[in-house]
Amino acid sequence: MSGGAILDVRHLKVDLATERGTLHAVRDISFSVEPGRTLCIVGESGCGKSMTSLAIMDLLPKSARRTAETLSFRGEDIGSPKVMGRLRGDRIAMIFQEPMTALNPAYTIGDQLCEAYRHHRKASAREAREKAIALLERVGIASAGDRLGQFPHQLSGGLRQRVMIAMALMCGPSLLIADEPTTALDVTIQAQILRLLAELQEELGIALVLITHDLGIVARIADDVAVMYAGQIVEQGKAGDIFGDPHHPYTRGLIDCIPQPGKTRPGERLGTIANTVPSLVGEMRGCAFRDRCPHARPVCAEDVPERRAGDHMWRCVLEALP
Amino acid sequence: MTAVLEANDVSRLFEVRRGMFRKKRTLHAVNGIDLAIQAGEVLGIVGESGCGKSTLAKILLGLLPPSEGRVRYGGRDLTELDRFAVAKLVQPVFQDPYSSLNPRRRIAAIVGFPLDVHGIGTKAERRRMVSAIMERVGLPSHFAERYPNELSGGQRQRVAIARALVMNPKIVVCDEPTSALDVSVQSQILNLLLELRKDLDVTLVFISHDLGVVEHIATRVAVMYLGRIVELAPTHELFADPKHPYTRALLSSILTPEPGLGIPETGLGEAYPDPLNPPSGCRFHPRCRQRFAPCDTQAPRPLLASGHMTECHLHDPQIDGSLPQKDAYP
C-alpha cells in the first residue's frame, strides 16, 4: 500500500506536557494516503484527530513533542522542519475549521491569497493576482477581481471557507489536509463546500485527508476511513466496510448513536455509549474503550491485538462483533 | 388538542447601524409569524443561520418583547403577565452548557435557583425537589455539591435541563441543545428529552440546524426562512412530501451516513440574502429553481391544507400556474 502512497505515516506519537503529567494525545498511529483518494479521520472531541493533522503539518503547539518512525511525503522526510518549510503551502496545504480565525483580519483577501504563491513560485504580483482570480472563480466566487481588495470580515462564512480553499490550492498541492472544514457552516453551504472539495480532488488528482466528527460527511465523501479513539486508530478500512460491517464496538456504537432515516424509527431510543472518554494522562495499557464497551471482558485490560482482513484493520480482542 | 402558546402575527425589528455616521436601518428578524403550539407536541424549528429561529425562541420565552403582534399563554396575553408568571410556564435550555451555567455556584444551587427566586416551598422541600429532578435527568446525587467545571458537556446539559424542569413548566424551549455535544452524548440527551416529554407531560420547542435530529425528535416541524415560517407540517409529512422548494433544498442537504450516495446538489445557487435588504416578493425567489412570473413582485400567502401550511405561489390555486417560468440564477 505504501508503494503508491503520497503520504506515509508510521508509528506517529504526540505527547503534550501538562501540569498533571504527560498527555498522550496521539498514541502510535500509522496510515497512508494514495493520490486521488480521500481518507477521513473520524472521532469525537479529544481523540487526537486534530493533533494528528497538526503533527503532519509540523504546526504543533510548543508544549507538544512529536515522534515518528516514518513521516514521508513522496519519499521525502517531512519530519525535517527544513523540508516541511519548503513543502508547506506549496505541495502540502491545509484548510482549517474556522476561516475567520485562520484568515488575517488586517490583510485583504488578495494579499493573503498571493503571499504563499509569490514566496514559493517567485512569481510577480501580476501573475499571482491572475492565478488568484482564476482560483476564486473556480471555487464559485462571483466578481472575483473585486473580492481581492476586500477584507475577511466583509465576506460570509461560506465565502470565507471558499477563499480558504482557493488559498490552499494556489500552488497546486498534491496533498490537502482539511480539519473540520464545514463544521462552522450551515448544512446547505456544507453540502456545497464538500461537493466543491470532491470535484477539485477528482479534477486535480489531489490526495485529501479530511478530519471530521460527522459520520454523515465521512460516509458521503471518504474512500478510506480511520476511526480514532483516545489517541489510537481503532478501526480502519474502506468506507463501505466501515459502515456496512463495522468490527470495532466503538465504530458500531457511534453509528448507532445517530438517527438514520429508514433504520431508526422517529421517537425511538437511540443507541448510546456509556461513561466517558478515559484520561490520556500517564501510562495506558489495554483497550482504551473497555470501560464503555458492552462486550468488555478481563482480557481487554491486556495488550489488544491488531486484527486484519484484507485492508480492513481493527483493534479488538473480538474477531467479530456478536 | 389545545394550544398552550400562541403567536399571532408576531414581528421583531432591530435597528441596526453599520458605522457611526451611517443611517440606521431596520432588520426584520422575525416577520409576521403565526404559530400555535399544541400541548404535548415536540415542535421542531429549522432554518439556516440568520433565519430568525433564535429570535423567535426568545420571544416565545418572554425574554424579548415582540415589536408587533401578540403572544398568548393559555389564552392570556404576554403583556398581562409578569416575568415570574412567564417563567413558571416556559423555561429555556440553551446551546452551550459551558456558558449557560454560573461557574461559581454548585450544581444543587444552580438547579434550585428558580425555586429560590420564586420562593417556592421551604428549604427542605426545595432540597427534595432538586434531588428528585436531578435523579430524573440522570445526575448522580453526589454531583449536587460539585461545580460546573467538574462536569462533562453532556452532564452540564443535564444540569441545564434539570434547572428548566424544576419549576414544572408547561413548555421547554431548547435552542440547539445538542450542537455543542459529541454524537455519543447527543443521543443520550435526545433520549432523555423524549423520556421527559412522556413522563412529565411537557411540551417541547426544539430548535436545531440538524435536520436528521429534528426528524427523529419532533412531531411537527416549522421551516423558517428570513424571518418567516415558509412551511409547517407534521414531521412525517414534511419529510415525505415537502411542498416548499426551500424545504426540499434543505432536506436534500442532509448527509445521512450511507456510503456511496455521494454529496447532494442542493440547487441553492446563490448565498443567503442580506437580511437588511431582503428580496422583493417571495423572499426565497432569488435562490429558487422553480420561480415564475409572480414570485419577484408578489409575496405568497400562507396556504393551509389538512394541517400542512406552505407559503409558495406554486401551490396557490389563485395564481395562474401557466405563467412563464423565470430563468434560474440570472
Automatic annotation (TrEMBL), chain A:
<dbReference type="Pfam" id="PF08352">
    <property type="entry name" value="oligo_HPY"/>
</dbReference>
<keyword id="KW-0547">Nucleotide-binding</keyword>
<dbReference type="InterPro" id="IPR003439">
    <property type="entry name" value="ABC_transporter-like_ATP-bd"/>
</dbReference>
<dbReference type="GO" id="GO:0005524">
    <property type="term" value="F:ATP binding"/>
</dbReference>
<keyword id="KW-1003">Cell membrane</keyword>
<keyword id="KW-0813">Transport</keyword>
<comment type="similarity">
    <text>Belongs to the ABC transporter superfamily.</text>
</comment>
<feature type="domain" description="ABC transporter">
    <location>
        <begin position="9"/>
        <end position="255"/>
    </location>
</feature>
<dbReference type="GO" id="GO:0055085">
    <property type="term" value="P:transmembrane transport"/>
</dbReference>
<dbReference type="InterPro" id="IPR027417">
    <property type="entry name" value="P-loop_NTPase"/>
</dbReference>
<dbReference type="Pfam" id="PF00005">
    <property type="entry name" value="ABC_tran"/>
</dbReference>
<dbReference type="InterPro" id="IPR013563">
    <property type="entry name" value="Oligopep_ABC_C"/>
</dbReference>
<dbReference type="InterPro" id="IPR003593">
    <property type="entry name" value="AAA+_ATPase"/>
</dbReference>
<dbReference type="GO" id="GO:0015833">
    <property type="term" value="P:peptide transport"/>
</dbReference>
<dbReference type="InterPro" id="IPR050388">
    <property type="entry name" value="ABC_Ni/Peptide_Import"/>
</dbReference>
<keyword id="KW-0067">ATP-binding</keyword>
<protein>
    <submittedName>
        <fullName>ABC transporter ATP-binding protein</fullName>
    </submittedName>
</protein>
<dbReference type="GO" id="GO:0005886">
    <property type="term" value="C:plasma membrane"/>
</dbReference>
<dbReference type="GO" id="GO:0016887">
    <property type="term" value="F:ATP hydrolysis activity"/>
</dbReference>
<keyword id="KW-0472">Membrane</keyword>
From TrEMBL, chain B:
<dbReference type="Pfam" id="PF08352">
    <property type="entry name" value="oligo_HPY"/>
</dbReference>
<dbReference type="Pfam" id="PF00005">
    <property type="entry name" value="ABC_tran"/>
</dbReference>
<dbReference type="GO" id="GO:0016887">
    <property type="term" value="F:ATP hydrolysis activity"/>
</dbReference>
<dbReference type="GO" id="GO:0055085">
    <property type="term" value="P:transmembrane transport"/>
</dbReference>
<feature type="domain" description="ABC transporter">
    <location>
        <begin position="5"/>
        <end position="251"/>
    </location>
</feature>
<dbReference type="InterPro" id="IPR003439">
    <property type="entry name" value="ABC_transporter-like_ATP-bd"/>
</dbReference>
<dbReference type="GO" id="GO:0015833">
    <property type="term" value="P:peptide transport"/>
</dbReference>
<dbReference type="GO" id="GO:0005886">
    <property type="term" value="C:plasma membrane"/>
</dbReference>
<dbReference type="InterPro" id="IPR027417">
    <property type="entry name" value="P-loop_NTPase"/>
</dbReference>
<dbReference type="InterPro" id="IPR003593">
    <property type="entry name" value="AAA+_ATPase"/>
</dbReference>
<comment type="similarity">
    <text>Belongs to the ABC transporter superfamily.</text>
</comment>
<keyword id="KW-0067">ATP-binding</keyword>
<dbReference type="InterPro" id="IPR017871">
    <property type="entry name" value="ABC_transporter-like_CS"/>
</dbReference>
<dbReference type="InterPro" id="IPR050319">
    <property type="entry name" value="ABC_transp_ATP-bind"/>
</dbReference>
<keyword id="KW-0547">Nucleotide-binding</keyword>
<dbReference type="InterPro" id="IPR013563">
    <property type="entry name" value="Oligopep_ABC_C"/>
</dbReference>
<protein>
    <submittedName>
        <fullName>ATP-binding cassette domain-containing protein</fullName>
    </submittedName>
</protein>
<dbReference type="GO" id="GO:0005524">
    <property type="term" value="F:ATP binding"/>
</dbReference>
<keyword id="KW-0813">Transport</keyword>
